[in-house]
Amino acid sequence: MRIAVHERYGPPEVVHLQQAADPEIDANEVLVRVEASTVGPSDSAGRSGTPRFARLFFGLTRPKHPVLGSDFAGVVERVGADVTRFAPGDRVFGTLAPAMGAHAELVKIAEEAPIAHIPDGLDAAAAVATVDGFLTALPFLRDLAEVAPGQVVLVNGATGTVGSAAVQLARHFGATVVGVCSTANAPLVASLGAGRVIDYTSEDFAEARGAYDAIFDAVGKRSFGAVRRALTPHGIYLTTVPSAAIMVQWPATRWFSRGRRAAIAFTGLRDIRLKAAELALLVELIDAGEFVPVIDRIVAFDDIAEAHRRVDTGHKVGSVVVAVSPAASSSSWSPSPSPKGAAA
Fold this sequence. Notes:
Distance between the termini: 45 Å
Shape: globular
């Protein structure tokens, strides 16, 4: 099989394709022929070794995970003797996280891990584009913020992989959603369920006072201190990006504050059984028409360095999909469909 590897930290060009032995599977494992994967900010960090904090996971001086990628969609090639939920030929999608290695033509995964049948109506590119954003945004909004009907949730970076998922999930939980993005992307954010869209080039949402029950900074651009007064008296600030400040504010506001709080979650490190149950929920929402993928672009496996370049710009809209199989390159999925019940 072919794999995308990098042996040193550096720019996108350090990623290249090479041959590797096909994986061997155990009795409880599924072998998947990958049709599509994604490149996201974590892959960019793993390739570049920046920010330096990332090297605690990816390797201090050289890459510990030469094959990046966690999310996959494809077709079951073979199953172990004890596997009962899947059979060769099944269309499946899921994630290897916290492990990596999905930037390959074949991956193996345990049956009890986050793997599910692809919902009807989605091709591999569309299916894989839903995974990371959903599995990241869900614990933030459901578990940390406990979003409920009647609340107002602001999502900063509402067009990214995580941000576009957060807009849809907050709407699903019954909240009024305010999305922050550029002028050009306002129609997309509204179509995903935002009742109001703020153009960050002309308005600073942090200038509001007591307006939001939750502020989810899905791109890590604003600090708790900068947006604190925009929260309601018992509101919560959420960020996906670790920093020295948030690592202090998180426990301090959780245990010692009766007012506004700050929090972070390391969602990729969560127990695979929790993520497996959440992937099943994702399938239910897709089937109900309440969650849709947002695809920035589809890049051929041979051009995976270009996918890294796109992510490095910081301006992608939704997921950058890598077509590991040529068939995934011809995905007919629209990059901006409207979920059921979204704002017009």
